[in-house]
Amino acid sequence: MTHATDGLPGREVLDQLDRITDELTDRFHGTFGRETVEHFVEETFRLLDRSATVKIYLPTLTAHFARERLVDLAKVDGLTLVTAPQVLFVCVHNVGRSQLAAALLNHHAFGHVMVRSAGSQPQGEIPPVITEALGELDIQLAGAFPKPLTDEVVRAADVVVTMGCGDACPIFPGKRYLDWDVADPMGQPLSVVRGIRDDIGRRVRHLLDELID
User: Fold this and answer.
1) Which residue has the higher pLDDT, 53 or 75?
2) What is the mean pLDDT of the chain?
3) Which terminus of the chain has fewer CB atoms gathered within 10 Å of its CB, N or C?
4) What pLDDT, on the 0 to 100 scale, is given for residue 8?
5) Domains in the chain, start-ordered, CATH in brackets?
6) Contact at 8 Å (CB) between 95 and 130?
7) What does the CA dihedral 123, 128, 133, 137 come to, rounded to 10 degrees?
8) Confidence class for position 23, pLDDT limits 50, 70, 90
């Protein structure tokens, strides 16, 4: 495998991916072998490399997203006991509506729900206005970034909430699918984004009540 990214030589990237594989192999010891972990690390890097705008952070993002994907795969394969319901929010670019929804549900659920977000065409960066709107509620969006929609994250979800991404999300039996008609905050001023945030917040709290009733 050979990679080159802006600001990082290919050899350094390979070394970092090897380190990530070592760390995740230790973390998932007894659940997944090194070959499976290595496959997911390499695939995750390629997926993120397609849409990343600041590629110097790719190894760090790869480590985070590969770990999430392996957690979800373990749930799908019945290799781990997960009692909390899992919700996946999907929009087009995973920088606006789905990030708002995921952050709000995480905030209100207090760890009682596993939350994921993804984009059917992930790209760009999360706009400062999204971070500012959440910050007004003392919700921090540290570490969030646009992620692609992958098979295992959909299969691991109990509820899939789509927001403006059409038919991009694959359909699996036994899951609850919701389509929220929510305005797109991209390019909007803070005053408009506040209203979208509050609309999503009401929907999230209603969904949470149903999940943990």
Assistant:
1) 75
2) 92
3) C
4) 54
5) 10-76 (1.10.8.1060), 86-211 (3.40.50.2300)
6) yes
7) 100
8) very high
- The separation between the first and the last C-alpha atoms of the chain, rounded to the nearest angstrom, is 48
For the entire predicted model, the pTM comes to 0.92
Exposure letters 71-98 (e unless 16+ CB within 10 A, then b): bbbbbbeeeeeeeebbbbbbbbbbbbbb
Q: Which residues contact 8 (CB under 8 A, 6 or more apart)?
A: 16, 55, 56, 58, 59
Contact predicate 131/60, CB 8 Å: no
Identify the pLDDT of residue 2.
Answer: 46
Largest CA distance in the chain: 51
Strands of the chain, DSSP E? 86-91, 114-119, 159-162, 176-179
- Dig out the tokens for 9 from the structure: 């030589």
Hunting for tokens 């994250």 — which residue is that? 153
Question: 100 with 71: CB under 8 angstroms?
Answer: no
Inform me whether the pLDDT recorded for 4 exceeds 90: no
Structure-model confidence comparison of residues 11 and 153, the more confident one: 153
Q: How far is residue 151's CA from residue 9's CA, in Å, rounded to a whole number?
A: 30
**Quick one: average pLDDT of 155-161?**
96
Owner of token pair 């495998």? 1
Q: Kindly provide the b/e burial profile for residues 33-43, where b requires at least 16 CB atoms within 10 angstroms of the residue's own CB.
A: eeeebbebbbe
Q: Are 154 and 172 in contact (CB under 8 A)?
A: yes
